[in-house]
Every structure is written in structure tokens, then in C-alpha cells.
Design brief:
Blueprint (H helix, E strand, L loop, with lengths): L3 E5 L4 H14 L2 E8 L7 H10 L4 E6 L1 H14 L11 H20 L3 E3 L8 H12 L4 E3 L1 H4 L4 H11 L12 E5 L2 E5 L28 E8 L2 E5 L2 E2 L2 H14 L4 E7 L5 E7 L1 H17 L2 H19 L6 H13 L5 E8 L2 E8 L7 H4 L11 H25 L1
Parallel strand pairs: 1-2, 1-4, 2-3, 4-5
Antiparallel strand pairs: 6-7, 7-12, 8-9, 8-13, 9-10, 11-12, 13-14
Helix pairs in contact: 1-7, 4-5, 8-9, 10-11
Bound molecules: arginine.
The site of arginine has 10 residues, from helix 4, strand 6 and strand 7.
Amino acid sequence: MTERIVLAYSGGLDTSVAIGWIGEATGAEVIAVAVDVGQGGESLETIRQRALGCGAVEAYVADASDEFANEYCVPTLKANALYQGHYPLVSAISRPVIVKHLVKAAREFGATTVAHGCTGKGNDQVRFEVGIQTLGPDLKCIAPVRDLALTRDKAIAFAEEKGLPIETTKKNPYSIDQNVWGRAVETGYLEDIWNAPTKDIYDYTATPEFPPAPDEVTISFKAGVPVAIDGVKVTPLQAIKELNRRAGAQGVGRIDVVEDRLVGIKSREIYEAPGAMALITAHKHLEDITVEREQARFKATVGQRWAELVYDGQWFSPLKRSLDAFIEDTQKYVSGDIRMTLHGGQAIVNGRRSDTSLYDFSLATYDTGDTFDQSMARGFIELWGMSAKVASGRDIRVAGQ
Ligand code: ARG
């Protein structure tokens, strides 16, 4: 029987050419798998037909948009995960869900190998292959761009020679990856890290310098999950989409960073994640009133570690699973409403309420109704400073000798 290879298919030039390229290099049949993670753009049926037109023996489309929102974006939100303090893991969290569907397709169509279109320089090759090793340890991996010398020029020549139903003339100098959680743009003139991004880079966000009138929004959460916007019930997918639209119109969520790739390269990336950044901001502010101080402080460290693991392709690792359990436990009381103003590139919280809040007005107030016994503070401070005071006494004594 002819060997079968499942290819992660985007519909773009490289993966379209990869279908025939892999076929010629290996003699295998190629099954194209496109996964909908809310990337928008062309219809998946158009993409499916193109895969067949490029020589795939089967083309399979997986609608994973709700699954992606519920099982990948929501955990990222619960973790307030920002790699290196900036990047909400847009591409990093899409790889594991794509891997899941690739492995499923490999089983369904009897394939022995999984292929993806990544280069040998990035994080995504690691995320795909570590994921496949974990979910389908018997499956082999192949990356035509990296392993079969499929360069951009060769791809264009191949497509033209074979008359593939794909545009080869459109020159896009950028490498773009997008899904409902955000959009990542790199390469081209952005590789000079002093160059500011030009307007044409952006798609999810409008220019924040010329914003429309401020937009006030109330986001309701239940146990860390967004459940309503302005009182209207929403699914996580709907919440992200609605905030992509509203925060995007205000230019919220533009990020320009040089980040540390797992492979040891520093690279410049432009992100836009209006919905993700508005949601993370709101969620963090709700945690501020509902999560106990020590738990909150520790959670910040856990969230950072979680982001690093996910960035580094360890989505399916035991440590990531353990951290998920901790994070989930902290979300028990993260329920309530956050009101925020979206305007001029910013999402600024201006109100919060929760039935499970730890904010105690009678403890906090400086007005009548104060129940806090201020006389307790003196003794507390004495003891709190004791250890440093003893040490400082020793420093003075030693210095005087
Ligand atoms: N640097 C990001 C990451 O590794 C995004 C990579 C997405 N690819 C792109 N072509 N922009 O998660």
C-alpha cells in the first residue's frame, strides 16, 4: 500500500506546493488537513478545493474554533499568560490544537507521517513535532521547507510549472500567522528592529492615534471564564470575537517586541491581539479583588512559567498540566463584572463588582463606618521589621570592630 502523509495545510503558496513536492520526494499520497482556529479569510471549502486541485488525495477541514477558544484561549486567559511580559501566545496555543487534529486525521486516513510547513529557524516546528511525539509517538514528522529544500523561489517555479491553482505573483513580504486570539507579523523590513511598522502591517486593529468616541464595555466572568458582554450571554469564542471588533476599532492590543525564540535567536515580531489583551486586562482586574494576596502573588509566577512552557512547545507536558491544576483552583471565585473604557489604544478598567469579592469597604474606608482597629498596626510593624533590624544591628557592630 502507498504510504500516506497528513499535511498541515493553510491554503497558502508553501503548503500548496508542499502537496506535490512531498509526493515527488517521497512517493507518498498526501492528505491535506486545514484547521479552523478562527483565522478568518478564505472559506475553508475554498481552501479544501485548492488542496485537491494541488494533488491531495483527500482534503479534510476541521472546525476547531470553539474548541480552540474554550480549551486553549480560556486557559491562556486564566493564566494571564504573556510571554516575556508582552506576547499573549497567539501562535503558540494554536499549534497543539492543530496537532490534535493532524493526529486524528492520520488515524482516520491511515497515515504514517505528519508534515508541516515550518522552517528550521522558528518555534513552531518544535511545537508541532513535540506535540506529535506526545499524541502520536508512532508517527514520523517531515517539514518540506526544512527537510526537502522547498525554498520560496522553488515553490513559485513549481507552482507555475505544474499550473497549480494558486496565486504566485502576489508579493507579500511578511510572514503572517493569525487566529481568533490574535495575529503575528514578521520578516521583511521589520527585521531592522529600528524600523517602525507601517500601517499596512495591521489588520485586527485600527490606528489608535485617530480613535472613534470612547467605547465602554462591561465584561462578566464566571470562575475565570468570560460569560457575558454588556449583559448579553456569550461563549468564549463570541467574547473574543466581539472584543476583537470593539477593542480593535480603538487600536487596543498592538504589540511590537523582540522576543527570545526557543532556538536561541532573538526575533522581532508585531502582534495585534485586541480581544485577548482586553480580556486579559479585565480578568486580571477581577482577580485583583477576588484572589487572596499570597495566592495572587504566587499565581503571577506560575502564569509566567506557564507562558514559557507553552511558548517552548510543552503544551502536553506534565508540568504544564500541574500548573493548570493550580491555576484552575485559583479561579473558583473569579466571578463578577469588570467595566472598562476602550479608547485610543488602551483598555482602562474603571469599575468592578463581584459577589465573591475580598474587597471589604468597612476595612478600607477612611470615612465613618471604619471597622479597622488602627492600634493593631504598631505591634505588627515592630515584629515585621524585627528580623531586618536585628541583622542591621549586626552590620553596624561588625563595621565598628
Ligand atoms: N514568534 C511567535 C511565536 O513563536 C509567532 C510566530 C508566528 N509566525 C509568523 N509567521 N509570524 O509564537
